[in-house]
Design goal:
By secondary structure, the chain is mainly α. It has helices at 2-9, 34-59, 68-88, 92-111, 124-145, 147-155, 163-198, 207-239, and strands at residues 19-25, 28-33. The protein has one domain (2-239).
Amino acid sequence: MGDLWKVLNGHDPDFFIKNLFEYELFGQKLHITTAHVCTLIVMVGIIIFAVCAGRAIRRAAVTDTPTRFQNFAELIVEMLDKMIHGVMGGSAAKFVNYISTIFIFILISNISGIFGLRPPTAYYGVTFPLGLITFFTILYNKLKHQKLSGFVKGLCDPWPIWAPINIIGDIAVPISLSLRLFANVLSGTVMMALFYSMLPVFVKIGIPSVLHIYFDLFSGAIQTYVFCMLTMTYVSDAIGEE
């Protein structure tokens, strides 16, 4: 595939992960790629925003008029809190920090293509760990709230012969979550790279902006919402009615 692109275009398309440099650690050769750098940039940006928002809210007096930045930060917190409580109800307080964190990380990662980055979520090494975290969160809450007896009973529902199928269904959760997010973001990245490679230089500033609205903003926001909504639904189902 790479050789074909080199022949047709004279360079690699932008959606390929490129190796920046490599180093050796404990006898193992490790690589730093564009996916690692873009992920680090997104994480640093989120941390800086969180620190600035925290300082602005702590320093604000009750009698002061909130700044635009403070209003924006509080709006994000209120919207996420409302969404999580609307889905998880009384259990939301335990998971609001986790769900809010992955929501912001996935959203910023998905739309980072607007700023010239390769979306970290277009790399399966990022989305699969997110799916694994959700899987172990579900498993932990099943064992905590349903106890071992309830957990085994759920695997054997409606009949013990269904246990292998239920186990496969549970194992498929992190794979389906991660693949859905990865495939949708990667497809948008590939489409944008193809458009940029086909368009003449003098129109690359105007026309792609419309495409970014769909492939990055709209599709990225939808995939973020779907991932977090499924996570909340799975966890709520694992907790059950106390």
